[in-house]
């Protein structure tokens, strides 16, 4: 529920989130002011509580707005962070013509630019960079292991699941987590082999593991290693 209230002459939008809690909680988040309140409090009662916290709210809003302003103005400085790809570390840099690129983290090259980027621009660029590498890598490994199983190349999609590296549904569609491309290639291969074998056995029976072992003999080691991630 979205409401407005005037605090010290400034009109503030705030959201009310109802729950079974017994007290009122206020917090400043990306969407602004949020008020967590019990179900039995009226809107007028909540307004009164918000008014009583005017100084705190305005102070926190100033801090939050300054932070957002700094993030937009400063953002991310290429060359200051590293990112994993197939078990190796890479770092983003800006080329002489102003384009973002990735170079090995142990590269002896000095930073090509000291120019900051918007955090949002950099975030979108990194998401796309990982997506493109994942598509290329997974396509290649799926073709390799499908051939070993005498299977046609299967349909697959990228996933962003929080708890699964891969999955295979009854329609034969394989989903591979885009973050899998950050791991060493032998673990990518294990997940690919695992999901392809589900096209034969939609379970984890002894017959399933026998088929996995036929195309990926060291699967038990890979399973143990994957738990570390």
From TrEMBL:
> Would you say which domain of life the source belongs to?
Bacteria
Q: Which Gene3D superfamilies did the record assign?
A: Metalloproteases ('zincins'), catalytic domain
Where do the TM regions start and end?
A: none
Domain YgjP-like metallopeptidase, first and last residues per copy:
22-228
* InterPro entries linked to this entry: UTP_pyrophosphatase-like (IPR053136), YgjP-like_metallopeptidase (IPR002725)
Protein name in the entry: YgjP-like metallopeptidase domain-containing protein
Q: Which organism is it from?
A: Nitrosomonas marina
Q: What is the lineage of its organism?
A: Bacteria, Pseudomonadati, Pseudomonadota, Betaproteobacteria, Nitrosomonadales
